Amino acid sequence: MAPIVPDGVPPGQQSQGPLTALLQARIRQCGPMRFDQFMAEALCHPRHGYYIAHDPFGVDGDFTTAPEISQMFGEMIGVWAVDAWLRLGCPDPFALVELGPGRGTLMADLWRATAHVPGFHAAARLHLIEVSPLLRARQEATLAPLSVPAHWHSDLDAVADLPIIAVANEFFDALPVRQYEWMGGQWGERMVGLDAQGAFALTLNPATAQPAPLSRVLAVPPALGAALGAVRETCPGGAAVAASLGRRLGRCGGAALIIDYGYDGPAIGDTVQALRQHRPCSPLLAPGLCDVTAHVDFTALATEAQAQGAGRATPFPSPGQGDFLRAMGIEARAARLKAGASAAQAEAIDAALFRLTDATQMGALFKTLILTGCRV
Ligand code: SAH
Q1: If both were cysteines, with which of 32, 156, 182, 220 could 230 make a disulfide (CB 3.0 to 4.6 Å apart)?
Q2: What's the N-to-C CA distance of the chain in angstroms?
Q3: pLDDT, tens only, 310-346
Q4: Which residue ranges have their beta carbon within 6 Å of ligand 1?
Q5: How far apart (Å, rounded) are the C-alpha atoms in residues 239 and 175?
Q6: How far is 312 from 374, CA to CA, in rounded Å?
Q7: Which of 68, 131, 153 best tests ligand 1's pocket when mutated (most atoms within 8 Å of CB)?
Q8: Can you name the residues that pair with 188 across neighbouring β-strands?
Q9: Phi and psi based region of residue 275 (left: phi greater than 0; alpha: psi -120 to 50; beta: remaining)
Q10: CA 262, CA 369: separation in Å to the nearest integer?
C-alpha cells in the first residue's frame, strides 16, 4: 500500500489523512456536500482519493476480490468470453473491455485461459477502463509478460466502435451513490456537513426534483418500506456506464458480464459500507483512507442498458456467482488443477473453490448480470 503523505493537515487530524482537512475546509466554505459527491472525492480525488493513492487489494490491503483468490475465477470469465465471441460469429476485430481491472489479475488469467482458442487473441483489441494511474501501472506490469497490447481509458465512450465483450467484477459497487432518507411526509437527500466539533456529520436536504430513475426508487409507498429514517439509494454513475454499455451493445452487438454484490431492485436501504484493513469503519471517518462501496441495484443497470439499446438482460433475476462459475466449469477446472498438485496445493484449490462458489461464502452474495446486444 502506498503511503499517503499528509500535507497541510492540522496536528491531531493526520490519522484521518489529508483529504479530511481538504473536505472540511470546502464544507466550511461552501456548505454541506451531497453524499455521492463526498464518496466520489473519497474514492477518486485526483491526488488523495482512495483508488488514486492506494493499491487496496490482498491481505496487506483493505479487501480481497475474487480474481485475487484464485486464477480459476479469471479463467471461468475467459470461458464465458469465448462462448460470447463464438455466439457472435467470431467477430474480428472485437473490443475486449474490462471495467475497473484492479491489479489486472482477472484479465491476465482470462488471457492465458483463452490462448488456445483459434482466432480469439488475434481478433481481441484489449481496452481497460481505469481511473487510477497507480492501478493502471499495476495492470500494465501484470499484463507485460503476456505481451498483450492494451489501451487504457477513463471512460467507456472512448473505446472504438467495435462489437464488444465487456466484463466488470466489483466495479459498479465502487461508484458513488446518492442517498435519500424518509423525513415523514417527504424524502430528504443525505448531505455531509460538519458537527459542532468540526467532524463530518450527515444532514438532510429536502429532495424536490425527482428525475426518472429517482422516482422509481422513491415511489415505494411509505407504508411498505418508508418508515421514518428509511433510506433509498441511486447510483447515477452506474446508470451512466450501463447506458453507455447499452448504446454500444445496441449499435455494435456484443455481451457484457457484470459481477458484484447487490440486489434486484427496487432499492433496499442504506447499503454503503467502508473497510479499512479488512475491518468495517464509518465512511465518514477517514475519506481517502478506507474503501467505500455500495450494493449494486441490478434492476437499475438492466433497465438503463435496455432503454439505451441493449437487447436482453439475462439470466434475470441474477443467479449467484456460485451457479455462474459452476456453469462455466469451475469444478472440472479445479479437479484438473488438483491432478498433479501437492497435497497442500490441492487443499488450497479446494479452499478457493469453496470461497468463490459456496452459498455461505461469495457464491450467493455476489450476483451476475449478462447484457447482450440484439444480435446475440
Ligand atoms: N475488478 C478488480 C478491481 C475491483 S476494485 C477486481 O475484481 O479485483 C474497483 C476498480 O475500479 C479499481 O480498479 C478502481 O480503481 C476502479 N474504479 C473505481 N472507480 C472508477 C471509475 N469511476 N472509473 C474507472 N475505474 C474506476
Answers
A1: 182
A2: 42
A3: 887 776 557 899 999 999 999 999 999 999 899 999 9
A4: 43-44, 51, 57, 65-68, 100-102, 106, 129-132, 135, 169-171, 174-175
A5: 10
A6: 7
A7: 131
A8: 181, 206
A9: beta
A10: 11
